[in-house]
Design goal:
heterodimer; A: alpha/beta; two-stranded antiparallel ribbon; 10 strands; 59% helix; 7% strand; elongated; B: alpha+beta; 6 strands; globular
Amino acid sequence: MVPVASDPTVTGVPSTPARIALVGNPNTGKTTIFNRLCGVHAKTANFPGTTVTMRVGRSQRADGGPLQVIDLPGLYHLEGAEADEVRALLLGDAANRPPDLVVASVDAANLARNLAFVGELLAFGIPTLVCLNMSDVAERRGVRVDPVALASCLGAPVVPMVASRGIGLAALRAAIEDALEAPTRPEPPADRPVAGASPAALATWADGVAAAAQGGLPAAPTDRRTDRWDRLLTHPVSGTLVFLAVMGGLFWTLFALATVPMDLIETTFAGLGALVRQVMPAGALRDLLIDGVIGGIAGTVVFLPQIMLLFFLISLLEDTGYLARAAFVNDRLFSRFGLPGQAFVPLLTAHACAVPGIMSARLIPNRRDRLATILVLPFMSCSARLPVYVLLTSLLFAGRPALAGLVFAGAYLLGAGAAFFTAALFSRTVLRGRARPMILELPGYRWPSVTNALFTARDQGVAFLKTAGTTIFAICVVMWWLSAYPRVAPPAGVTALRAEAAAPGVTAEEAGALTARADALEARDAQARSFAGRIGRFLQPVFAPLGYDWQLTDALLTSFLAREVFVSTMSVLAGAGASGDTDEGVLARIRTMTRDDGTPVFTRATSASALVFFVLAMQCLATLAVTRRETGRLRYALIQLGYMSALAWVAALVVYQGLRLAGVQ
Amino acid sequence: MPTAAVPLTELPPGALARFEEARLDPEAIRLLRALGLVESCEFRLCQSGEPYIVQVRATRIGLSRAVARSLLVVPSAPGAD
């Protein structure tokens, strides 16, 4: 008899909650088992000091005590650098206590291959319980596994399950309890693999165990229907058409459905701001609450509907088995630029918003490929760039919508082109190497699990709020402060206008117009004299070669918070009030804005230069916060910021100076 | 007389073959082995072209052309469409 583990939790003196880890090959129903065990009590997190993303859930033991359940990423083996972190976690290291028990999810219909992984766990001496999942699929294929024979061969308990229907859940709970309670377990069989066993030795051992448990090794099933679907979905023509249709549907759903809660969030927070304005006396605290805190929370929460809906839809698609096929459709193009085929979900998502796009890069298993995708992804034109594109193309081609439309489409193409160019460049520099040639398991086609998708959406939403959300909120408050302070006395013109509005004989309508004019002028003056305005003036020489005066530089800096802020800052500086819309009145004011020397702010050359700058620049602190979080290194966020800003500056310079040389003003 | 090993790309769709060797980086070889493509295992080529799809026991594996070219296999039965 050997001890299960040296941890006091197992030897009868519980000091911390018992901890079990769920492991297994991808597509073995591991997540379903996790959801069955933990229900809604789960969150997504990173292991301390590692880049391994896991889900941590809470379940209950038979005595009512807590049971921590950790769902690790799907793994095919424990060898090599990429599995280093997971192996260290399973065996325990200085930062992490090893789990008291590992529950290995095994696909009963594909037993031999899954057992090779179990063999590795056993070879490392990790206390293991085998969950023989998808027994129903195996039986449909005529494969019958004897759990008793299997347990005897493995020297580890085996529980048959159909997790998708909850069959075997009670037995699994009881087996976990037994394994945690029993301080000892039977001596493992003599033929169990040893640590460091070769893959061939593991495969031979797994074949032997599978044959003993199944009464022979089943012949490979020939599934003509799957063959036909695979041909259709991976074919260069039909595969591409299906891909375009599926992605079109996905993004239509995302835009159409997410808009409703996003509008609701914006309206709710605007209403909340208005309420605070009514009930609180004017002053710095009220401004901080309305524009800093409420504005900051709104700026964070507004991302939630897109993130949750996207992960819900991706989870459904992934469950069907389609995503693996779609990865091959895209691999033909992407691999030429050093990007993996799986990058299509993040890159397409980034057209809605880079934040969920970067988060969805978790689908890419290889770290180098994932980093390459995250680094180039913000070049894709997100929806926050739309108002800026609308403003600048309207300034460029007023009254010529066809030309404006062409330039608009060109902006999207320029962004996508820059992403692929950068991916190719990074493959030769900061991220040396090509995207790994695609080797992907093609899971069987099946109906997706709505429950799993709902849990995934909820987990990702909570994870976003807890980590990136807090950073985004802090940034919102700081940027508000830079734009609102120092407080300055209103200029003489504003005081005069207010006095005029209050004078006797002025009608209510006239007074309203005068007050609005005074408010707009005051806002313009406050913006100009704020810290952000002063920084704009200070940094203006850097942007002078691109044709920008201090006002454009100021708008550029404030839009660092989020690109759409560019429009509202320009609107404030144009004296039209803080409007985020680009209606004709605001446009006319912005078009006629002048520099300190009286010349127009927006010439054709400046507008084109600003447009190119906005297509290419990393003008989004929320994206940087998420890059930092998802890559685990500040370095990558800084590379993204430095590279994109430099590229945007150079490209805008070339456009501005080129147009001037060509005589376009 | 033993049949010579050929790149996977030379097999017709539907062919059965025995896996011999992968001329790839160690990480890719590890992944192939973990997916069940170990030395001397029998498999069926379900689809050729981009991607190549092979079936080893109950596992279907999609391979890019670059990977398929690097896999040496021994045909064990004539191809059948």
